[in-house]
Specification:
The complex is a heterodimer of chains A (about 450) and B (about 425).
Chain A: H1 2-7, H2 10-32, H3 35-50, H4 54-61, E1 70-72, E2 77-79, H5 111-114, H6 117-120, H7 129-132, H8 166-177, E3 185-186, E4 189-190, H9 200-203, H10 206-214, H11 216-219, H12 232-244, H13 252-255, H14 263-272, E5 280-281, E6 284-285, H15 295-298, H16 301-309, H17 311-314, H18 327-342, H19 355-365, H20 369-372, H21 397-400, H22 403-412, H23 440-451
Antiparallel strand pairs in A: 1-2, 3-4, 5-6
Helix pairs in contact in A: 3-4, 8-12, 10-12, 14-18, 16-18, 19-23
Chain B: H1 5-15, H2 17-22, H3 31-40, H4 42-45, E1 50-52, H5 53-56, H6 58-61, H7 64-83, H8 93-102, H9 107-134, H10 143-165, H11 170-184, H12 189-198, H13 205-236, H14 266-269, E2 284-286, H15 287-312, H16 337-345, H17 347-368, H18 384-406
Helix pairs in contact in B: 7-9, 7-15, 8-9, 9-10, 9-15, 10-11, 10-13, 10-17, 11-12, 11-17, 16-17, 16-18
Classes of the chains: A mainly alpha (about 450), B mainly alpha (about 425).
């Protein structure tokens, strides 16, 4: 009978129908089960528990379970972190376990204006813990470990001048003192032997950086960089500073937050604005305005701040112009002047220094110390170099070179370093030419410094 | 015999005014109704009222063409859903992918289905081609349908290739870079062709918008049209090929020879082969339910397999496309890896010679092969030479693709997949 021909299909339709149905239901559940929903329900339960009035309770109970996101067009970010971290802005959740903990200092960096990933990194669009924290394949920006969080401060705030980021300042100090710039460019200044470091913080992890500092060739085969002898805290600080170099530019609103009042920032401004042209410090400088050595004793901080904002207001008739300092800048300058009183600031204004001192700064600024040692004593290993496999001391350049010769050497460099053993690879380190990088005025100071290195009264007889 | 409650309900609905207005024929109970149902419904009338038993044998066709068609339908469905979220901009495409994964309901599932269906469609279009070759189904009168099939295979590759770029991740970016570079090896026209495809010399926003427009508009529209012609011709050529069909040996009917004392239907005047030619009632069964139900079951099966794949395995999404940081090795989509492997040996042969030769040979095949016998049987003894040549080519293609996919490591050097690749180092 014809019906039989239809009937024989029934079991197949039933079976496949059940299979497809189960798969659709399974797919739906897999899609609907999201870990953030559990966190939100936990948060709602906590809110309900805390509710005192019936209204509060009703409001808490009717909280919808939904994705929260902070859209930051200027930063080109969408941060959904607050989908799980629901109480970042609620101080009463201080000390709660994650993800429900309050974010300290939320007032300074409100999440609705900053989001989270601009400082913490990770994957803002993700809504699973693993993906959001960046611990998944194919996401190159995992969360910055909290111990390195200060690396992010420099994105908006000027790195070394931020009193809230001492580790970052320390890292930068170590970077400059260790002569890293001798081989590496950062912010446009530095040598060409090693790679640019402008985006190193976006490319490398803290683990990689630490290993690399102690033993460059171990993580970067063929690297000629000498191993660095950093102590543990120094290593952490310079790693943090490297992590801060992401090359990311923050726009408008965020960049305007740059200056944080600090004595260091004040000193920088003092130098940049040419205050020394009219005022003197330590007997050096102009005489149009009063000496400022003891201004901190004579004036109250409020007076100095008001004076910086508009001199005429507090000293009518003064010839000092209105510089248009911002509040933060005025406070930085004031802090600097107040610190002079306490004699805590070591003054190193170039205009107050002699040529040799300035030359030492130039030596430091361009990272000469990276190869020639902090006091130009040499000794940095340069495998297979004829000069005892290390970079020679500069102490006696005054004996071997005239000023013109040494200038030529600095400007042109020495790219061919004679090998000790011709069969082995050439020495990795060489002297790059500094023409166009070190400024003319700085060159004279640098030579003065180098010539000053020869120990007094020492004559080796040649 | 008692009908099931579900069937009773259905029949009750059909007897209402609305039911009758939609379904001209109810669930068929007689052979007359079985014929009527097939011709009175738009979707069903695409099929014949009766079908040869041979065509229903799964071991003959394996349903490969139909599976390919279903995959194409599923791709259109999921593709439209994806279009609701996707923004074809280099800045936002990747973010669209992330949003699909993290916040769109079933977004990842739909993307997975689309991805797997796309890969499977490439696979099944090739399998279908192999089936048609091994059963010699491209022989007269089906020569041109074979050519259409080859064109449809190229359309499928084009669809897959253009879709490959859209996520705008590293995988997409570099696969398309490598893929378009392969086409750039063609003499004279190669570089121009590459420039035309990309709207520039490198993969960028112009390439993305071109690939997008091709992927969602041009190629699907052309493919739908070609599929329609392909299927129409299958019917006009008398359904699936089978051993006993008369082919084009049937005598052409000359109008002038027909008796004049009779009025003629259109079918009787039509020349050449028609679905009726050589039809033997003994060999045929009604399409309802024998063909239609099998087709529905196959569709359910395809959906089930796709769901398993989509639930179990996510579509890949690598890092945001980075033009200055190529992966090593950068690989084209898997179906072009055989060509890429050839390119590694000879840019000309991999980029131009072999693909051109392949397409030209496939297109000319039904006109070159004059052997008339063997149609409708797998691996017919008469075709041992043709089958051997085809098998060798197929084998080489598969081996090259496998080598390109699994045995090539950094710098396209030999790399056994079960051995750990050397740690990729970045020199300063």
């Amino acid at each position: 009978m014809a019906n039989e021909s239809v009937r024989k299909f029934y079991p197949w339709f039933t079976m496949l129908g059940i299979v497809v149905g189960c798969l659709v239901v399974g797919g739906y559940y897999k899609d609907q089960f999201r870990e953030w929903k559990d966190f939100q329900r936990k948060f709602i339960r906590e809110e309900v528990r805390r509710a005192i009035t019936p209204q509060q309770r009703a409001r808490a109970e009717s909280t919808p379970v939904q994705v929260h996101q902070i859209i930051l067009p200027e930063l080109n970010r969408v941060d959904r972190c607050t989908t799980c971290h629901l109480a970042v802005d609620d101080p009463t959740y201080g000390g709660y376990p994650q993800p429900l903990a309050y974010h300290p200092l939320h007032e300074q960096h409100p999440s609705e204006k900053f989001g989270c990933t601009i400082c913490h990194r990770g994957q803002g669009r993700a809504t699973t813990a693993a993906a959001a924290h960046g611990n998944v394949p194919h996401w190159d920006e995992p969360m910055l470990p909290l111990m390195y969080i200060q690396a992010s401060c420099g994105k908006c705030h000027q790195a070394a001048d931020n009193p809230a980021a001492p580790e970052l300042a320390r890292g930068q100090q170590i970077f400059e003192d260790s002569g890293c710039r001798g081989c590496h460019k950062l912010g446009g200044t530095g040598g060409i032997i090693g790679p640019d470091l402008d985006k190193v913080g976006a490319r490398r992890s803290s683990e990689w950086l630490k290993k690399h500092f102690l033993s460059p060739a171990a993580v970067s085969p063929g690297s000629g960089m000498p191993p660095q002898k950093f102590s543990e805290p120094e290593l952490e600080a310079i790693t943090l500073f490297m992590l801060s170099q992401t090359g990311e530019m923050v726009p408008g609103y965020y960049a305007s937050m740059k200056v944080i009042a600090s004595p260091d920032e004040g000193q920088r401004l003092f130098q940049q604005k040419g205050c020394i042209g009219c005022h003197s410090l330590g007997g050096k400088g102009g005489t149009v305005g009063p000496a400022l050595d003891d201004v901190g004793l004579r004036r109250a901080p409020d007076w100095i701040v008001a004076h910086f904002k508009d001199p005429q207001v507090v000293t009518p008739g003064t010839v000092m112009p209105k510089f248009g300092f911002t509040e933060a800048e005025a406070r930085s300058l004031t802090d600097f002047l107040m610190h002079l009183r306490e004699q805590k600031v070591a003054l190193s204004l170039p205009s107050l220094m002699g040529p040799v001192e300035r030359g030492r700064e130039v030596f430091r600024k361009y990272g000469c110390a990276g190869c020639h040692g902090p006091n130009a004593q040499g000794g940095v290993p340069n495998p297979n170099a004829k000069t005892a496999q290390q970079i020679p001391s500069l102490k006696y350049v005054a004996d071997s070179y005239t000023k013109d010769e040494i200038l030529k050497r600095i400007l042109n460099g020495q790219h061919e370093i004679t090998s000790l053993d011709a069969s082995k690879p050439a020495p990795p380190l060489y002297m790059p030419g500094w023409r166009g990088t070190i400024k003319d005025a700085e060159l004279d100071d640098l030579v003065a410094y180098l010539f000053s290195l020869k120990p007094k009264g020492e004559d080796l007889g040649f | 015999m008692n009908a099931s409650p579900l069937k009773q309900l259905w029949q009750k609905f059909q007897r209402t005014r609305i039911g009758r207005s939609i379904f001209r024929v109810g669930l068929p109970d007689s052979n007359l109704e079985r014929s009527q149902v097939m011709v009175s419904s738009f979707l069903l009338h695409l099929q014949p009222a009766k079908v040869n038993k041979h065509s229903l044998r799964a071991s003959y066709s394996f349903g490969l063409g139909l599976i390919t068609l279903y995959l194409f339908f599923i791709l259109i469905g999921t593709g439209v859903l994806l279009m609701f979220y996707y923004v074809p901009s280099t800045e936002r495409a990747y973010e669209s992918m992330k949003d699909l994964e993290f916040v769109v309901s079933a977004g990842q599932l739909i993307r997975n289905m689309h991805r797997w269906a796309a890969h499977l469609m490439v696979l099944f279009v090739v399998l279908h081609l192999c089936r048609v070759f091994y059963t010699a189904a491209y022989k007269p009168p089906r020569e041109f349908n074979w050519v259409l099939g080859v064109a449809l295979m190229l359309m499928t590759l084009g669809l897959s290739f253009t879709g490959y770029l859209l996520p705008w991740d590293q995988l997409a970016y570099w696969a398309i870079t490598v893929g378009t570079n392969i086409s750039g090896y063609a003499p004279i026209v190669g570089p121009k062709l590459k420039f035309l495809m990309l709207g520039g010399n490198v993969v960028g926003q112009p390439a993305l918008i071109r690939f997008y427009a091709l992927h969602v508009m041009v190629l699907p529209a052309v493919t739908i049209l070609m599929v329609a012609v392909h299927l129409w011709r299958v019917r006009k050529d008398g359904g699936l090929s089978r051993p006993d069909e008369p082919g084009n040996v049937v005598a052409q009917v000359e109008l002038s020879h027909l008796p004049t004392n009779k009025t003629y239907g259109l079918m009787e005047l039509a020349r050449g082969t028609t679905p009726q030619v050589g039809a033997n009632p003994e060999d045929e069964v009604f399409s309802w339910p024998h063909l239609v139900f099998r087709e529905m079951l196959l569709f359910m099966f395809v959906v089930a397999v796709l769901l398993v794949l989509a639930i179990g395995w996510n579509a890949p999404l690598e890092q945001f496309a980075n033009p200055i940081h190529p992966p090593n090795p950068a690989k084209a989509p898997w179906y072009f890896l055989g060509l890429q492997e050839l390119v590694a040996h000879s840019a000309f042969w991999g980029g131009v010679g072999v693909p051109t030769l392949l397409v030209v040979t496939l297109v000319l095949l039904p006109y070159v092969d004059r052997q008339r016998r063997g149609t409708g049987r797998w691996f017919a003894r008469e075709r041992v030479l043709a089958n051997t040549i085809f098998s060798i080519c197929l084998f080489v293609a598969i081996v090259l693709t496998i080598i390109g996919s699994f045995f090539r490591g950094p710098n396209w050097s030999w790399q056994e997949p079960w051995k750990k690749p050397p740690v990729a180092t970045e020199s300063h």
